[in-house]
């Protein structure tokens, strides 16, 4: 089955062609980062308009790269939520229009299920069951995964998502959007131990997270340094390192707890923050100690992309699921409500 996947939930237009027999044939992405950077974050209306502009050229590009014709496509998968409503509607309208024109089914995919399944596109995919840490700009969740659509939420952030904490903290320190890669870059030059930030909610039981206090803690530290006349690049790097270490260690502690609680030895990390090298290293070390394994996607499939949507949509289509022709999106959508396949 040849599936065209479209991702438009936020500020990236992602398109891919996935074949159930041959795997991923082609994928293309247009990132709107430069468009939003001057505003310090995503401007929803600009995002929607840009998705409209990019979608068809990207679809033509992946078809050409894969050496396929539109007439060979068996189904269209699109991100139906969660995300920005206008941006989602562009992808949904485009997918439904193409499906109608081509006489093929369309399926709406849950964006976080797409992230969760992205490591399945790698050479050594994880086997069910596993614990998944989903860390994106909008979500921080620990999920027990027993199969596609068999999701049990173990814990989540009570305030900011991990990626959001990176983005907001970076903004407070005058860094560019998106903040995750910027903080990671500065942290590489940071002096270990100069600052130590709290590990929120690790001193009490449970698997929930809270990152908004850490953001305030970082801001206060940065302001104190500046008040004392130190706004050097090195101090910025040292603060970035302390912040990143606090996030990474907090996530690692909660992952260890989730693995213990479930008795599982496989951990999947997915979403934009799973591209973070320091997080990957900390989790690799923890899983090596537990004699388990950690799985993640290649960096460009950690952040938003069309390949994960084509893959997830294909699995649901193969199980006989698809949606009607209505252009319906769900800006807020719990993954636990998804049907099992
Ligand atoms: O999954 P994603 O592309 O979009 C959402 O679904 O939200 O995640 C984007 C988030 C942003 O907050 C970005 O700052 C963060 O992922 N991110 C990173 C890194 N690369 C992207 N955070 C930390 N380290 C990175 N290397
Ligand atoms: Zn995402």
TrEMBL record:
NCBIfam families: gcp_kae1, T6A_TsaD_YgjD
Cited function: Required for the formation of a threonylcarbamoyl group on adenosine at position 37 (t(6)A37) in tRNAs that read codons beginning with adenine. Is involved in the transfer of the threonylcarbamoyl moiety of threonylcarbamoyl-AMP (TC-AMP) to the N6 group of A37, together with TsaE and TsaB. TsaD likely plays a direct catalytic role in this reaction.
Keyword Iron-sulfur belongs to the record: no
Subcellular location: Cytoplasm
Cofactor note: Binds 1 Fe(2+) ion per subunit.
Pfam families, alphabetized: TsaD (PF00814)
InterPro entries: ATPase_NBD, Gcp-like_dom, KAE1/TsaD, TsaD
Classification lineage: Bacteria, Pseudomonadati, Pseudomonadota, Gammaproteobacteria, Pseudomonadales
Residue stretches making up the Gcp-like domain: 24-311
Keyword Nucleotide-binding: no
Listed name of the protein: tRNA N6-adenosine threonylcarbamoyltransferase
HAMAP family per UniProt: TsaD (MF_01445)
Necessary cofactors: Fe(2+)
